[in-house]
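#lab-general

N.A. 3:47 PM
ok so I finally got the sequence cleaned up, no stray characters, all 239 residues accounted for. can someone with queue access submit it? mine expired

B.Y. 3:52 PM
send it over

N.A. 3:53 PM
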Amino acid sequence: MMAQFVFYIFATVLLFSAAMVITARNPVHAVLFLILAFFNASGLFLLAGAEFLAMLLVIVYVGAVAVLFLFVVMMLDVDFGQLREGFQKYAPLGGCVGGVLFAELVLAFSHWQMAPGRAAPLAAPGLTNTAALGGIIYTHYVLLFQACGLVLLVAMIGAITLTLRERVTGRRQNVTCQHARTRADTLEMLELNLGESVAERGGFLRPKGSYNEIAVPGSFGLVPENPKDDVASNKEKGA
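B.Y. 4:20 PM
back already:
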């Protein structure tokens, strides 16, 4: 009886939060309702005895995916009012598409039956869900699991390759020179009078000679033949 009561509580909050995800006007509030929906779904998985899926929802989806959504929504200056323009114009078409998808789901689930050979669990009795999933994934489906990892690796390399741009004006420092520097090269103590600024003393220039002394050749424009004579140009560039 208690399990049924908790189930209905989790299910009610889950349906409410899922509805608020698509109806909330503030995108930050929508992401927060999505996180609430994930927590309630994990509670339902715990009631069903699937503790691995419950922890997966909390750790992966809430701890990584939803937080990433939240940071992207908060950092991007998106005009959501402009995005909602034309909603009434395309609402009938969207309603028709949604109705067709809903009818397909009803037809699919009304004729769905479990295969008789899959009724029995694949794991041995006495094992937890996590141990059973680990045994199945790393024995029967280990090649498919490794193939999924390779697909994700290729996707990551492709994203880096497509977004990486070599900029001539990019500042790339020489790591060896950075490790060899001393405190006197980077730290300078000044005694300023009341109301006096560092700019009145000539400002700071790090490194003291020229940026080209510690830069990788070819970065931040052309490296002059005599880097020590480039102090004035670095001041103009804001080095």
